[in-house]
Amino acid sequence: MESRGKKYGLLLLLMTVVGLTVFANVWKSNLKVRRVTLEGNRIIEANEFFQLAHVKQGSLIYDIDLPAIRKNLLSHCYVKEAIVERNLPSTVQLTVIERAPIAMVNRAEIIYLDDEGVVLPHSISKALFDLPVLSGVQLKSSLPFGSVVDNSDVQEALAVLRTAKRVNSEMYHLISEIRLRGRNDMVMFTAEGGVPIFLGDGDIADKLVRLEVFWNEEIRQRGLQYLQYVDLRYSDQIVARWSIQATNAKTL
């Protein structure tokens, strides 16, 4: 009798588990989308992403094709990465990582470039960007939005801007223009006073760190108005020319 009781108990437990599983599957299969939420957008308006996702309210949540929605979001040239998730019982969650412009190129139509050299339209967002200008750039006449500029001089200039941001955000905002002169030879111009800073090529991080020290220790004390140029092309030193006769040249 005890053995039979155990069998009945196990059968009842099995039936309960099967019943709950069936109920859960029926419950899940009838869940509908009530909300679509978005996180991560800073530049592009939310409505653009909702239109790309094209998730209809009232759709069965398990009929939503998450990979297809992600592909639609990634088709936007300002989207670097996208994640689409179901948050039961009724929400589809969109998360995007946007590409942020880091430089501007003046052409017949102004374009932005992100830190990887991806071409971005300048008029797509209401956000205003104060960006360094890349000049002396030799680019293809046709540059579709979302394509990557593979010009080595441009990539070197973008590396300078990326490094400047890492060294100090103030250093990045110091730069108003980078003029490309071929073979990775570059000249930066300061936002204030348009002072040329000769970079040459190579050792970008080391040069910018030395420039930051020089800026804080020398230029802040003497005043930018007396500075004619800064030359970083020499190994382990900075050469600067001042308009004051007593210190026509200073080497650190």
Structural class: alpha/beta
Please count the beta strands (DSSP E, at least 2 residues each).
13
What Rg, in angstroms, do the CA atoms define? 29 Å
Give the CATH class of the largest domain: Alpha Beta
Helix content: 25-40%
Q: What's the CATH H-level superfamily name of the largest domain?
A: Cell division protein FtsQ/DivIB
Continuous helix count: 6
What layout of secondary structure does this protein have?
Layout: H1 2-29, E1 35-39, H2 46-53, H3 66-74, E2 79-87, E3 91-98, E4 103-105, E5 111-113, E6 119-121, E7 133-135, H4 152-167, H5 169-174, E8 175-180, E9 186-190, E10 196-200, H6 204-222, E11 227-231, E12 239-242, E13 249-251
Parallel strand pairs: 1-3, 4-7, 7-8, 10-11
Antiparallel strand pairs: 2-3, 4-5, 5-6, 8-9, 9-10, 11-12, 12-13
Helix pairs in contact: 4-6
Write a brief caption for the model.
Helices cover 34% and strands 25% of the residues. With 252 residues, the chain is of the alpha/beta class.
Fold and architecture overview:
The structure is a single chain. The protein has 252 residues and is an alpha/beta fold. It has 2 domains: 68 residues, Ubiquitin-like (UB roll) (Roll); 149 residues, 3-Layer(aba) Sandwich (Rossmann fold). 34% of the residues lie in helices and 25% in strands. It has 6 helices and 13 strands. The strands form 2 sheets. A 10-stranded mixed sheet has the order 6-5-4-7-8-9-10-11-12-13. The protein has a 3-stranded mixed sheet with strand order 1-3-2. It starts with a helix and ends with a strand.
